[in-house]
Amino acid sequence: METRMLQSAETLATPKRRKLSSMRKRQIRAAFLFILPGLLLFLVFNLYPLIKSFQISFYEWSIMPGRASTFVGLDNYLRAFQDPIARLSFRNTLLYTLITVPGQMTLAMLAALLLNQLGRGRGVYRLLYYLPVITSWVIVALLFRYMFQSPNGFINYLLVDVLQVVEKPIGWLQSAKTANIPIWVLGTWKGIGWSMVIFLAGLTTIPNDLYEAAAIDGAGSWHRFWHITLPLLRPTVVFTLVVLLIGGLNVFLPVVLVTNGGPLQQTEVILSYMYHQAFDFLDFGYGSAMSFMMAVFIIVLSFIQIRFFRQPEEIR
Amino acid sequence: MVQFASRRKLLSFMYYLLATLGAAVMILPFVWMVSTSFKEHAFVIEFPPRLIPANPTLSNFEQAWTANNFQLYFRNSLLVAVTSTLLVVLLSAMMAYAFARFEFPGKELIFFIILLVLFVPNLIGIIPQFLLAKTLNLRNSLIGLVFFYVSGSIPFNTFLLRGFFEALPKELEEAVLIDGGSYFTIFSRMVLPLSKPALATVAIFSFLGFWDEYVQSLTFIDDPLKRTLPVAIASFHGQHGTEWGLVFAASLIAIVPVVLVYISLQRYFTGGLTTGAFKG
């Protein structure tokens, strides 16, 4: 008891500044210890490679130990602009984004509005729609390759024999014209559940009396969606849009696993082309230049979006 | 009034009908996978295709589980995913706590760099990471894979947890400090137990991501005995070409831990999902 009182008397007597600075020292020491292990891993295995990638992009990089790499300035970057496959990859990347992002968001919104109306069993439905999200890309890509087989795949069977909308089986993965379609369908299907869960969480925050009041005023369901639901969901929708756009531009796995860029590199996207240049043709300099341009493109786009959409309460 | 009630019933029935139709389309590929995995090889290519196998068999599962080092790959994946998950949860929580509570020089700068890297896709650094793995003798090493996995997911999870820790009340922590407790005691005895939902969110999505990770594992590991499951399944398909039943049996076994983890931790993160979810 006595010591306790003594202690508090001491604390009281200490000048405020000295106490603060000893607190501060203690905090800095603690912060250092808390941050160090994670920061070290981050610096060595994450940040350093990113910076190194910038350096490599200016070289004709030699993978042989002991053989010097040649500095080539901006050559790798200029080459990307003239390379027809790089241009095609960029086009495919944009197409994938422009098709799968609105596709995912529209279908996810429909699913969320529907599931929001359900009482019992909503959790089960949510899990069923969410299943593709948690399944490995490797597995779902194999599954889509199997279903889009020609001539005896399930999709062909459905289109030719069941629905009879096409006359003969389509060689989905064999032709450059159609090989993108399984990739787009896969990308959309796998992502719906993710956006849906986010929309669903947003929908539950909208107070019910708003709808009741609107219904009394005679507003139809379309009117209510357009004037109540959508404006109130705006932050959620914007968040989802930004994340999906970034994810769409980063498309890699569905392409590598479904077509591996084929036939004849016609379905390559930027990151798959970068990967093939680096690890099939060992052109590390060119690969790095492409991935670095991609990174800058995505960062700039993200910041523009965040500025453009920013409102209080949104994306901090 | 009676009319009104029956109209509501009809509407509710329509909603369930539509939701069921949607769910059917969403899980159709899985149903197809399950069906194929129970078919004998000869029936996989039958035409017209049958959803319910005529002579269901477990032989694909037996063969997948016992042959091709499958159990070894399963163990490799489990080892890498579990170790990485534990490390990510611990290290990101520690970093996030420092960012949430302490004032220290360089704080803003370090956090800004972490945020910037958050926007850069992991794949961008894969070329130098490959070279780094070579230099550090971490190629063909499962521990090496753990390093890359953990460092790659630190930025996002630090960002996520910082927000969560900032929202925790400060007063209790200050009381412990005044009573002579250390920051470490506060962190391990108060902050971590209070943050179970957030930590569970980080754990589940990290585990799913690591369990399914394909590119880095494919790139850094050549030794067939060090393969992880996704790479093994992809190459399994390469070796066994049209034996889809076998490939899908292996895939279904690989999905089991995912579903188990998801269901067992689900109750923690139903609330945290909006903030915690990221693209798988």
**How many domain regions of chain A?**
2
The share of residues in helices of chain B is over 70%
Which sequence of strands runs across the widest sheet of chain A? 1-2
What would you report as the Rg of chain B, rounded to the nearest angstrom? 24 Å
Can you tell me the CATH superfamily of the largest domain in chain A? MetI-like
Low-confidence blocks of residues of chain A: 1-10, 312-316
How many strand elements of chain B?
0
- Largest protein-protein interface: A-B, 86 and 86 residues
- Reading the helices and strands of chain B in chain order gives HHHHHHHHHHHHHH
End-to-end CA span of chain B: 48 Å
Under the CATH scheme, the architecture of the largest domain in chain A is Orthogonal Bundle
Structural class label of chain A: mainly alpha
CATH C-level of the largest domain in chain B:
Mainly Alpha
Q: What value does the average pLDDT of chain A take?
A: 86
Features:
heterodimer, A: 316 residues, mainly alpha, MetI-like fold, 2 domains, two-stranded antiparallel ribbon, 2 strands, globular, disordered N terminus, disordered C terminus, B: 280 residues, 76% helix, 0% strand
Report a brief summary of the structure:
The complex is a heterodimer of chains A (316) and B (280). Chain A is mostly helical and 316 residues long.
List the helices and strands and how they pair.
The complex is a heterodimer of chains A (316) and B (280).
Chain A lengths: L1 H12 L2 H41 L2 E2 L9 E2 L3 H8 L1 H34 L4 H13 L2 H11 L6 H9 L17 H24 L4 H9 L4 H29 L3 H6 L11 H10 L4 H26 L7
Antiparallel strand pairs in A: 1-2
Chain B lengths: L1 H36 L3 H4 L14 H8 L3 H32 L5 H13 L6 H10 L6 H25 L4 H8 L4 H12 L1 H17 L2 H6 L8 H12 L3 H26 L3 H4 L4
Helix pairs in contact in B: 1-13, 3-13, 4-7, 4-10, 7-10, 10-13, 12-13
Describe the protein's architecture and organization.
The complex is a heterodimer of chains A (316) and B (280). Chain A is 73% helix and 1% strand. With 316 residues, chain A is an all-alpha fold. Chain A folds into two domains: 48 residues, no CATH class; 226 residues, Orthogonal Bundle (MetI-like fold), CATH 1.10.3720.10. Chain A has a two-stranded antiparallel sheet with strand order 1-2. Chain B is mainly alpha-helical and 280 residues long. Chain B is globular, with a radius of gyration of 24 Å. At the A-B interface, helix 2, helix 4, helix 5, helix 6 and helix 7 of A face helix 1, helix 4, helix 5, helix 6 and helix 7 of B.
